[in-house]
Design a protein that fits this description.
heterodimer; A: 321 residues; mainly alpha; 2% strand; globular; B: 75% helix; 0% strand; transmembrane helix (chain A); cell membrane (chain A); ABC_transp_permease (chain A); ABC transporter permease (chain A)
């Protein structure tokens, strides 16, 4: 494996880790506030479809992004309605949202575009184009650093940089602002927050809303950045890998970044090599595909460190009278 | 005092949830420019208008009975088994191994052997999540989701690399030998003079499914173990105080659940495909969630809900064949049913409870 191959794999890692990271941070806000969300997958899928559809029709990727966020937020509000207002089972609601998105996207895509549940390919301004960072071309001749800066760091779409910038932002919001403190408190002990005179309902809705926005960006990136258009079930379990990453990261922002990069790397390797030959030992592609899930199960089992979820996670809050 | 009479709890609440789901589905059909009434008529005639339609409806029903019962049994122990899909995949592996590598001369022998293989493999796939939930407190929902994906990877590997016959490009096993072929409803009904479509895949497993409903009902409401499972589901501290071992109940409930999900494979792998193919389960494991929710986790409720979803599935296939409405319409309906009967249960229930209370005060 030469240097350029490594650069290419890492470059693809960054692109594949981006939707995972966005969805993972989305789940982080929601679950830290005590609302479990296994509907990340569905929200991403809905956003992927609507962003691609609107971007194709309008020719503007930014309108597409907005529409994608809108679709995701609508589903997030359904989740909020079920799990906060009506105190339903958050897991069942998540399952419903996943199926709703899986069905509706194909149904509507077929009705609008008649291409077997996909959108037409996006071109030009309907896609997020890669951004060349300053001096990338000038440095391209420099050995070693040139490719690292020019290929690995530069040349991604704006959403990639946004996703990575969201990691410190999320850390700052959660651990350095009053809103973040309350958000975390509402996931650990909502009664205490309520006693302090802060609305549990409003905080949880805010968290679910942020979750919707971030899932929307993740889905839009899938359909308009990573690929050129929507195809049926294009999230392909990414929402669940993001969920796995979230557990792997113990519900912490910086850990989320490392977990998503790790899982992104696995995807990048699986994409490039059908079967990876490591000095005589052949690792089949299926192992790479399922490794995130296996790692998460091992991690959940508590054999390597312990993943402790927010204490009030999954519990609807009932105000005492 | 109960807030609602029992009949309202058992029939009215699911019915209203179902109506809400139906109305929204009709709106979806309208929105994509089709006529909902025509769609319903086509679904009814396609799924119930001929023995061919019934044959498919009952075939799907059989799948959903098993996956629905699987979710229901776990639910009584307050465990949400989302892993029916993976457990049914592994059940398929058990069936395939039994049919391909054991000498099974006649279906009367092959059926119980394959069913045991399916149940064992399905239960084995629920074992690790069950153990992790019982002993290490890892959330069963997350682990069973992960195990669905691991199962898909495992089956993919086995079919592509190991079980595929030499020279075949298709990632599937060989055809099962003649002796393991299950009789279809046509074969069973012909001797007693009832004409049933020969082409439809409904087979003897449907009867096994009906028996399974009965056995699960007996287990849950007529045995000590069933009582322990339900007691544990109602209140873990109370159950522990009464001397019920939570680890044991969690493990047993999940193993039964996984075994039931696995037994679905007798229907689809052995009864229909007669070989193990990739993605044989086709989402039936997830439909089990909707079926159990709609059937209020009662075996007979599950049976009725499975019949409804069997009808929707076959009707949806007919729609996809004759109109421009894709099969995914069923996924939407399924999602709405899960949403209204599961997550938004309180939304349906609260106004009803108020209504009944108001009536009672007036009386």
């Amino acid at each position: 494996m030469d240097f350029l191959t490594i650069i290419q794999i890492l470059d693809s890692t960054i692109r594949l880790a981006t939707p995972l990271l966005l969805a993972c941070l989305a789940g982080l806000y929601s679950e830290r506030a005590g609302v479990f969300d296994i509907g990340l997958e569905g929200k991403m899928l809905a956003a992927a479809f609507l962003s691609a559809a609107v971007a194709y029709v309008s020719g503007s990727v930014w309108l597409g992004l907005l529409a994608g966020i809108g679709a995701s937020v609508v589903l997030a509000m359904v989740h909020g309605l079920a799990s906060i207002t009506f105190r339903g089972n958050q897991l069942i609601s998540g399952v419903a949202i996943n199926f709703l998105a899986a069905g509706l996207t194909v149904l509507v895509a077929q009705s609008w575009f008649q291409q077997g549940g996909r959108t037409p390919s996006l071109m030009g301004g309907a896609r997020f184009e890669p951004i060349t960072l300053p001096f990338a071309d000038a440095l391209s001749g420099v050995p070693f650093l040139g490719p690292i800066y020019g290929d690995l760091i530069s040349g991604h779409s704006v959403l990639v940089y946004l996703a990575f910038a969201l990691v410190p932002t999320t850390w700052w919001v959660l651990f350095r602002t009053r809103f973040g403190l309350r958000l975390r408190a509402v996931g650990e002990n909502p009664a205490a927050v309520d006693t302090a005179g802060v609305s549990v309902t409003r905080l949880r809705y805010a968290a679910v809303l942020i979750c919707g926005v971030l899932c929307g960006i993740a889905g839009a990136y899938l359909a308009t950045g990573l690929q050129a258009g929507f195809v049926k079930d294009m999230t392909a379990g990414r929402g669940f890998i993001a969920l796995a990453a979230l557990i792997f990261a113990k519900w912490r922002p910086w850990n989320s970044l490392w977990a998503c990069l790790l899982f992104g790397l696995l995807q990048a390797v699986a994409l490039r090599y059908q079967n990876l030959d490591l000095g005589g030992v052949v690792i089949p592609v299926q192992v790479m595909d399922v490794l995130p899930y296996i790692l998460t199960v091992i991690f959940l089992a508590g054999f390597v460190g312990k993943a402790i979820p927010p204490r009030a996670g999954g519990e609807p809050y009932v105000k005492e009278r | 005092m109960d807030k609602m009479p029992r009949w309202a709890e058992v029939f009215l609440v699911p019915l209203i949830s179902l109506l809400l789901a139906a109305v929204l589905s009709a709106l979806v059909i309208l929105a994509i420019g089709e006529n909902p009434w025509a769609a319903v008529k086509m679904m009814v005639s396609g799924a119930l208008g001929s023995t061919y339609g019934w044959g498919y409806t009952l075939y799907y029903t059989t799948n959903f009975i098993f996956t629905g019962l699987a979710v229901a049994v776990a639910y009584h122990a307050r465990l949400f088994n989302i892993g029916g899909e993976g457990q049914a995949m592994l059940g398929g592996l058990g069936v395939a191994l039994a049919c391909l590598y054991l000498p099974l001369p006649h279906w009367l022998i092959a059926l119980p052997v394959a069913a045991i293989g399916a149940a064992l493999f399905g239960a084995a796939w629920a074992l690790i999540p069950a153990y992790l939930q019982a002993k290490r407190g890892s959330h069963i929902v997350i682990t069973t989701i992960m195990f669905n994906f691991i199962a898909a990877g495992l089956l993919n590997y086995l079919l592509v690399n190991l079980m595929r016959p030499v020279g075949s490009m298709d990632p599937a096993t060989d055809k099962f030998p003649e002796g393991t072929h299950l009789p279809t409803l046509h074969d069973l009904l012909a001797p007693i003079g009832i004409e049933f479509s020969k082409a439809a895949p409904a087979n003897v497993t449907f009867i096994v499914g009906l028996l399974a409903c009965l056995v699960v009902w007996l287990l849950l409401w007529r045995t000590r173990l069933g009582y322990e499972i339900r007691a544990f589901g109602h209140s873990e501290p109370a159950a522990v105080y009464a001397g019920i071992n939570p680890v044991k109940i969690t493990m047993i409930a999940m193993l039964i659940s996984g075994g039931l999900a696995g037994m679905m494979a007798v229907n689809n792998v052995m009864g229909e495909a007669e070989r193990l193919v990739m993605n044989a389960v086709e989402g039936a494991g997830f439909i089990g969630i909707a079926v159990a929710l709609m059937g209020r986790n009662h075996p007979f409720g599950v049976l009725i809900a499975a019949l409804l979803f069997g009808f929707l599935y076959q009707g949806g296939a007919e729609l996809a064949l004759w109109t421009s409405i894709p099969r995914e319409l069923i996924v939407v309906i399924q999602a709405l049913v899960i949403l209204f009967t599961g997550a938004l249960d309180h939304m349906v229930r609260m106004p009803l409870e108020r209504l009944f209370l108001a009536f009672r005060k007036g009386a």
